[in-house]
Structures are given as structure tokens and as C-alpha cells.
Description:
Layout: E1 9-13, H1 23-30, E2 35-41, H2 53-72, E3 78-81, H3 84-95, E4 99-103, H4 108-123, E5 127-131, H5 153-162, H6 200-205, H7 210-222, H8 228-231, H9 244-248, H10 254-265, H11 273-293, H12 315-323, H13 329-341, H14 346-359, H15 364-374, H16 380-391, H17 406-413, H18 418-423, H19 432-435, H20 443-449, H21 464-476, H22 479-485
Parallel strand pairs: 1-2, 1-4, 2-3, 4-5
Helix pairs in contact: 3-4, 5-11, 11-16, 13-14, 14-16, 15-16
The structure holds flavin-adenine dinucleotide.
Flavin-adenine dinucleotide (FAD) is lined by residues 232, 240-244, 247-248, 280-281, 283-284, 287, 346, 349-350, 353, 371, 375, 377-379, 382-383, 386-387, 390.
Amino acid sequence: xxxxxxxxxxxxxxxxxxxxDNPALAEAARTGRPVLPVYVxxxxxxxxxxxxxxxxxxxxxxxxxxxxxxxxxxxxxxxxRGDPRAVLPALIREAGADTVFWNRRYEPFAIAxxxxxKASLKAVGFTVRSFNAALLHExxxxxTRAGGPCRVHSAFWRACLAKGDPPPPLPAPxxxxxxxxxxxxxxxWRLLPDAPDWAGGLRAAWTPGEAGAxxxxxxxxxxxxxxxxxxxxxxxxxxxxxxSPHLRFGEVGPRQVxxxxxxxxxxxxxxxxxxxxxxxxxxxxxxxxxxxxxxGLPAVPLxxxxxxxxWREDPEALRAWQRGATGYPLVDAGMRELWSTGWMHNxxxxxxxxxxxxxxxxxxxxxxxxFWDTLVDADLASNAANWQWIAGCGADAAPYxxxxxxxxxxxxxxxxxxxxxxxxxELRGLxxxxxxxxxxxxxxxxxxxxxxxxxxYPTPVVDHAAARGRALAAFARxxxxxxxxxx
Length: 487
Ligand code: FAD
């Protein structure tokens, strides 16, 4: 019979691709037993949300970094492909293991899968333990005063703050006793685009992996944290953390971010920039809270009265939106930033998303799908919760009659037009007063800037006032329900 101390423990990595503050890995290391770190790529199991193109690019590099970091501790990351319900039992047999640890996921398909894996392994006597690595607080532990799930972010966040600081982050293991098994090579998974290679902008913008996440956090704390509250809405500035893809892949965890912010700001609970930043981190938590309690969140409107909303089909307008060719410079700049870097500034995400659902009346699920494919931070909870919020059918959504005017938003948040000029270079020569509304520029100004509307830059795909009127008429259908629930 095998000596229990030499029986390997499988650590199943998922969206926790880091060594520090990784409770499943830390617990496995603590036992002193050999550790077999595994990542399973599951593309084909029905019900699984297959990762989009930009996220697959990120995953490749993140797994490469994790593999290097684990190798430095004496452990090889094993890559396998398929349904974990079949892959994990097979791995256990091959490795002669009797224990599996993982950090929890909250997507409905992942919960169902994990429950099935746990039940089948426990049924044959194996030990399975799961931990929290992804959230400040487990979604079921944050409640309203009446004890139910929260529907409003502000109340949710107050309840989170009342719980006090989350536990301090765990250190990375200093060494691991490795167990070895053969696996796939990363290249064989073909996660990187090659025909064509569209990832040049992603490579220039990001350094996936735990070290890249650490650097991003340090840079933010040293630079932009203090002015975060005042500057975070201006897309032309580097005023936000850009931690979202690192958080998405778990290269850094929210507890690490929380405690690093407290240390950097020197204030318990945070003040000013720090408090605002932590509250934004709280939006991520709230999205998971919503997804946990409303499993249909990625596809079904939370407000049932939206089920019959008169959405339009307009493939041409959708294409213009996707390509950053709507004729509204701020929307186009955002969509091109997204295409080029896999990321878009939050303020511009709101405006671009609102434009799709309100100006074009195209279903929010269509926009959600495009973001899912193109964002490096594509996250089932945050993407769905934000699209529902913008469409007016979310938990604490803005009232339907609040329709962003992309011109006024541009003038307010990109007053000099720096952001638009960066991503829509054909408008670079226009002065600030017309860069967000080139159709109102005098002929001489357009000529001097080399802009020919309809040729070098599109004319608006819809007229704002007309589109607003159409949206209000459509939204009036669900007005009664919205007004009744508005918070
Ligand atoms: P910071 O301002 O530095 O905020 C710090 C962290 O807080 C972020 O990294 C993120 O984890 C979290 N956060 C901030 N704002 C939000 C928010 N509104 N909702 C949830 N979490 C938030 N974020 C994603 O991570 N994945 C998505 O798929 C996603 N889809 C979105 C779709 C739409 C239509 C909209 C309007 C927003 C979406 N967001 C999504 C939220 C937000 O735009 C990004 O989290 C943010 O822009 C990331 O940039 P940052 O890291 O610099 O944010």
C-alpha cells in the first residue's frame, strides 16, 4: 500500500492562474505531499461558455507563465483537454492520487460541473476540497437585512463593507514537491490566432501572467490610485488600473488587490481614490452575486417585462458598430480600441453598449456576444450584468429614458478629443469643438483636416434625436414595469 505522505494531490487550476493567494495550492503545499497541478481545457461540453478569441490569446500566455512559475518551484503543469467529469477521474487513476483541490467558480455551468465531479469522486472515496480565491466574500454570505440576495449595488457594497476586511492574502509556496504526468503541449491547443495573426495590438498592450499582474497593480498604486475618483471617467488618460484581464484569469486575486490598496493608501477602509476604487472592485463582486442568484443572467433579462421588447435586426448597423464605423467618433474610438487591444475604457463601454441597444435597438445579447469574443477580460458575470444594466433590464438598471448622447459624453469626458484622435486617426486634424460631431464642422474645417464625410469617415448611421425618439417609444412599452421597480 502506498505511503499516504507520497500520494499526490491534484490541484485543478481554472481562473486562478497564480501561485500567491491561491488557497487550493497553498493547502496542497502545506500537506508536504507531491502536488500535480492540472489545467483542463473544455471547449466542447454542451452548456460551457467557450472562451472567445481574445481570451484564448490571453489564456495561452497566462498558462505559459504559470507553467514557468510552477517549474521554478519544481512542479510541472499538466495540460489536458476534454470534459473534466471524465478527465479528472482518469488523471487520478494515472497519478495514483486520492485528493483533488480547486478554487471555486460561480458560473452556472461550472457549478453544475463541479458538483458532478465532486459527487462522483467522493462516491469512490476520494477527498475533494474547494476554496475561495476569486471573491472578497462568497456570494451567499452577502445579504439584505431581510436575509435575501441584494438587487442594488450600493446596498450590496454597504453589506460587504460591514463584513470588514477580507482575510489577508496567502503567500506563494516557496517550494513544491512535484508529481509528473504526460500532458498536451500548449501549442497543440492552438489558442493563438494565426490566420491571420490579429494579436499584434494585444501583445503591445499586455503582459499576461502573475508577474505582469503584479507589475500592473504596483504601477497603478504608485501612479493613478490617488486621482482615481476624479479621473477614472476620462478615457484619454491612463487613470484606471487595467487589472480586469488579470483579475479575470485570476493572476491576481481581489483580496490581494484589497490589501495592497489599503497599504498604499495607508487608510483602513480607504478614502478618496482608494474608497472609489474598492467600490468598483465591488461591482465585480456584485456581478458574481447576481450571477450566483440569477443563473439565467447571461441570456435572460432580469426584468421579465423585457421579454417582449421590440428589438430590431439590422446586420448592416451591427457591422458598423462592430467595426467602429457608426459615424459617432466616441463610439467608434471605443470599438476600435476594443478590436486593437482587447480592452475598452469603462465609460466608453457604457456609451458604446448603450448606442447598440438604444440607438440601434439591437438586442443586448448580441453586444454581449461581441464583447465576449473580443475582450481580454471577457467575464460571464461582469459582461452579462453590465449589458443588462445598460439595456435597462438589469437588477438596479438606470431608468430606460436615460439615453447617453455620444456627442455630449465625448465633450464631457474627452474634452480635447485626445481619445478620439488616438483611435480614429482620420479625424486627427479636427479641432476639439468638432471632433465629436464632425457633421457639424464647417466645410473649410473639414477640408483643412482632410475629412470627407461619407468617404474618409462615415456619416452617422442614425440621427441621434430620431434614434432617441424611437428608443423612447420602444422602451415605453416596458415603462410601467421599469418605473415601478426603479431604485
Ligand atoms: P478599474 O476602474 O481599475 O476597476 C478595478 C476593477 O474593478 C476592474 O478591473 C474590474 O475587475 C472591476 N470593475 C470596475 N468596474 C466594473 C463594472 N462596471 N462591473 C464589474 N466589474 C467592474 N468587466 C470585466 O471585467 N469583464 C467584462 O466582460 C466586462 N464587460 C463589460 C460590459 C459592459 C457593457 C460594460 C459597460 C462594462 C463591462 N465591464 C466588464 C466592466 C468594466 O468596464 C471593466 O471591468 C473595466 O473597464 C476594467 O478596467 P480597469 O481594470 O481599468 O477598471
